[in-house]
Structures are given as C-alpha cells and as structure tokens.
Amino acid sequence: MTTRRSNYHNSIPQQMPIRKGQASITTYSSRLKTGVTALLVPQGPLISTGGTLPRAAKRNYAETDDDDLEDRRPEDEGAPLKSRMAIMTNHIYHTEEQLEKAAQQPEILIPIRINLDMGTYRLSDFFLWNLSEQLITPEQFSQIMCQDLDIPLQTYAPQISQAIKTQIEEYAPVATIDLPTGIQNVIVNLSLHLAKHLYEDKFEWDLASAEFTPERFARTIVEDMGLSGEFYPAIAHAIYEVLIRLKKEACEGHLPTEVENDAAYNADAGWRVDQEGLGDEWAPSLEELTQEEIERREVERERNIRRLRRETAKFGDSADRDYNSFLSSKRRRKTMF
Questions:
Q1: Rounded to two decimals, what is the model's pTM?
Q2: Which segments carry the region annotation Disordered (predicted)?
Q3: Among 112, 227, 282, 335, which is least packed by CB within 10 angstroms?
Q4: For 137-146, what is each residue's pLDDT tens digit?
Q5: Helix (H), strand (E) at residue 111
Q6: Residue 238: which H helix or E strand, with range?
Q7: Would you tell me the crossing angle of helices 138-149 and 153-175 to the nearest 10 degrees?
C-alpha cells in the first residue's frame, strides 16, 4: 500500500511556479488592430507579411496539409504584430465601506455607444453604463480604454468621456422612470450588424418585468445559434436601445394596450397562426453583408440613433440638467400611475 501511494505521488507532474504580477510585454492592442474584431476596424488595406503569388501563378490547394492549417495563426495573415511594454492600469482601489455603499444602489443600465474615426482605424464600441455608478467616472473609464487600446490619450480620452456623459444626460430622464406593475408586452424588432454579419430577430418583451434580462436572452441566443462571443454584448446592447425607446413611447401613451399574439383558437398564448410564412419573421436570422450594404446600414443606424437621442432628450423636465448636477443631486425616481 505504501509503495503504491509513493509511486502514485511520484507520477504526478510537478507544477510550474505561478509568477505574480503583470506581464512586461503585450501584443494585445496590436492584435486588435489587425481587424479580427469589430472593436477596431482598419479603414485601409492591411499590410501583408506573407509573400504573394504572381497573377498568373496557381496554388494547388490539394497539396495543402492539415498540419499546415493547424499551424497557421491569425497573425500570419494581415498586419504585423508589434510588442510593447505593458502599462500598469491606473485603477482606483476603494474601501470596503465604499464598495458596500455602491452595491446598495439600484442598478439602472443604459446603452452607451462609442464611434470614433481615428484615420486609419475606426473605433466602434458598445457597453452598458450604470446610472448609479459611484466607483468610476467617464473620465477614468476613457483613460483606461485609451491605455488598453494604445491610442493617443490626450486626443481621444476627452472625446470618449464626453460621448458617455452626453448619452447619460439623454437617456437618464426615461431610464429613471418606474413603470407600473403588471404585464406590458411589446414587440421588439432587432436588427444589428457586427463586422460583416447582420443579425435580425423579432420577439415579445415585457417592459415591466425584471426577471428576464437582455443579457440572459442574448446569451441564450448566442449559445443556440453558435455565434461568436462578440454577439453576446452586441445583442444585449441592442435590446437595451430598443427597450428604452419603447419605454419612452409607453410613457407618452403611444403603445397599444394589448399586443395581438395571433395564437390559435383565440388562446392567451401558444403557436402563432401563420399559414404563409409559418412564423419565419419571428425567428432569428444571420446573413453576411457586402461592404456596400455595411456602409449603407451604418449611415441609417447612426441617423436613427441621433434621432432617438434627440427625442429622448426632450422627454421630461430633467433633460436639461448637465452631467455634474445629475450626479450631485439626489435622483428622484418618478412613478407612473
């Protein structure tokens, strides 16, 4: 028994010691600039590091070995990667009391979208911002973002922070309203394009329910359809944008009191009756777009977002408050009756 136990422990490979601290060299920002994600998209042709074949030459793909495909790395195709010294992120560390106080605040999430033209690259980011956030400011967030992406801090950090504060001012009047309890079903028409793909979906959503979140819905869609990880925050963010618009319409009384569910035999719920399309418009779809379609949809999306922000900013008496007064003043949550 003792011999076996000794041999068993001797057969376990020794673990490498875990080093503490941050790596000194990183290629993170360089890898992002190769265009493999939708965060930083090159606006010009990438410089290829590999040789090109003459125009008249032909490649025999039948001679391609599986090992060659496995050894091929994304960085071998496109712009060359550059290493740089890793910069320690200037985080602000808070006390336990500050963290506990922030955790007790209600979470009110609003969609934030950042679009910057940086010459050779275009920055397109989207995320959710908590109106009750007390631990980080838009200025601190923008500085960390510029450091992580290795983009000029003095040039783009003020633009990013100002874009965040502007959207906070525009969405806050609607986002802080409490809807009455009870089922308030609305129809969500979702259409978003990420990189070269267009995702579309149509479904019902209960505005008054907080049990099922856009994040949970987006994760389920990504898992069911086998989408890439970038679609998870993109779908959740798009749902928040649609819901805040529908919430504004509900507050103004422009939404119908009931949504026809087209259920069979006049049932309260169930399969929809659609003899022609068989309910295909209520199913998610994914298609690949051409460059012309991407540019056209980008212009339309920017126009719709600006229109939504203008309409949202006009709603409520608190729309004209600036960002500093919004944070310093005690938020009054309105209740509809």
A1: 0.69
A2: 51-79
A3: 335
A4: 999 999 999 9
A5: strand 109-117
A6: helix 231-251
A7: 140
